Predict the 3D structure of the following.
Amino acid sequence: MNGSAAIAGIGQTEFSMDSGRSELTLACEAVSAALDDCGVAPAEVDGLVTYSTDLNNEVEVARSTGIGALTFYVRTGYGGGGTCAAVLQAAMAVATGVAKAVVVYRAFNERSKTRYGRPQPVAGWPDYVRRNAGGGSRWWPWYLPFGLGTPAQWSSIVFQHYMHRYGVTNEDFGRYAVLARTHAATNPAAFYAGKPLSLEEHQGSRWIVEPVLRRYDCCLESDGGIALVITSAARARDLRHPPAVIAAAAQGLAANGDVVSNYFHDDLARFAELELVADQLWRQSGLTVDDIDAAMIYDHFSPIVFMQLEAIGFCGPGEANHFLADGYGTLDSPLPINTHGGLLGEAYIHGVNHITEATRQLRGTAANQLSSVDHVLVTAGMSGLILSRG
Amino acid sequence: MNGSAAIAGIGQTEFSMDSGRSELTLACEAVSAALDDCGVAPAEVDGLVTYSTDLNNEVEVARSTGIGALTFYVRTGYGGGGTCAAVLQAAMAVATGVAKAVVVYRAFNERSKTRYGRPQPVAGWPDYVRRNAGGGSRWWPWYLPFGLGTPAQWSSIVFQHYMHRYGVTNEDFGRYAVLARTHAATNPAAFYAGKPLSLEEHQGSRWIVEPVLRRYDCCLESDGGIALVITSAARARDLRHPPAVIAAAAQGLAANGDVVSNYFHDDLARFAELELVADQLWRQSGLTVDDIDAAMIYDHFSPIVFMQLEAIGFCGPGEANHFLADGYGTLDSPLPINTHGGLLGEAYIHGVNHITEATRQLRGTAANQLSSVDHVLVTAGMSGLILSRG
């Protein structure tokens, strides 16, 4: 696995709250843009990977973009937690020769159509939907009567325990939100381009889940599409841009687990799934935290950034608050985080926009370009990547 | 890929029309049976693969069977057409070191709960269900007003064209149904154990889709569960049974395609998806049709066996009827087919029961054991396997 595959092309639509066109159109625009970006012809593509929650069938995306026969197509589940697992799948296909050029795509009208942040329509939907949306295990309906009807609500049970354990406040979380919005402000593709956020504005925004999450702790809900082209590192080196080599890719479902927000682990203040992912990333890549030049950390809600920084090992348990307060995360710090503005500032495209930003940083084409980038870590709670300059 | 992974363990529940217990119970029984079969401890399992239509979450299956942390979990779509793709996924994980011991599972109460043979509840279900059930592309709703509401109906459009092209009749299809039921009759695990079918009974059974499918051309609808344990061929050789080495595994979505029954191909009498799969199987394994000692051919409806025999190359286009009439398919023929009774005679467990039968034939433990079996081919329309004696 180590280094045999690379992200050769990236493509995206604009990020908005009302795209005005179908999800299939968004998907095809993103796929075509990613192929154009690297110069791979649609006819070369023999693999398509997306997520179990994506409504765009492989056959339709292929037919509409000029892609022909496919020898690899698979979907990964567990919502945003599985974001990086799609890249793992694609890299496995390339490494084993099952496919030569795999496109990962994700496109939705997540703001103008079905908003993930709204209460999930569990009651009216059949088992099939609830279970495969990655949103719910068999136990989920038991939580609903207690008011846990949205991702913000069910995640906050875990976050509140974390706050209690380490004395972290919502104002502390706000410092991450301010950081993300600062980066978004200078990223023209970001929804919040030109609109930084002050800590006062954060603290003045309404509670979504008191005392855990305010409005500005919650990610955007976005319309948009993104695609990645993954091929062998050798082939990628012959294409238009320097490849983002997949140095490591992993997914993880901890023992006695559930989806990202689970109440079964012995220690709710630890992110057991990401610890499992991090172990694999270091082992596959041979790298350590000291080698990482920037990190794109899944941030559907501010607190999860704190827990992931600890799970990866950038700091110890309970130390993320001080880590960020000390200035880590900014563009000129030793570990810049979410340099595009993240899911709070750029867009919520299922977390796939973290992967495109990591690729841009390695190419040297990011809006907030860092000066020297060899290795970028990307996390998505239950999955992760290390991308390296090729 | 070639030969690096193997099926080490198989497990199943009884096959019935009313299991009397939950789908999760069936899944866990099958998984535990497969692990017991080969002697792999639950704690060794680090991968779980199932189908996008399976309602049993990985977390629940793991928790209930003693399986711990997972580093690989993915789902394959396109219904029964994707059956062998789950084994491809597992083999890829083993080949790349992403997982060491992967369990594939499929369990449902497909007769006593949601019957796949009934009209699909498209109207009342949200997009999400229709699209991800593998049953429908964006075009599907356009077919519904014309009476194509069940798998039998939409498949028959293609089958009828095949009949027209090659002068094949329903009585010809009946000869395959008789063959399958003959094999099921002597398989104690089969739903139709002890109940062979005569051609007269077949021809006397009611039309499901006239003039294509009679009742006995249609597969069973079954309650039950099956699991497979896939690990490295080297590890498998140290376990309880001779391994069924995965000599080749492939999936295929033809250009300008749709799900298994599609109306877009230039030539509806050819099975373009399986031709694509077969090419990969021969290339991966280095084998040819002459090396195949037995074939387990996906048979949700009799006619698809004819089309698949031709797509694989066991006979030429339009020749399957003569091939079967000449006696191929029987236990003492050069190419025994569906020796367990297939989906018409044993059970409909999504086609996974074809994979268990192939494994048993290679081990020498099938109810209708063949005398000399080195290589068995398994098809599922859009995916396929070659398993070899280890």
Remarks:
- Chain A is about 35% helix and 15% strand.
- Chain A has one domain: 5-112+220-389.
- Chain A has a mean pLDDT of 93.
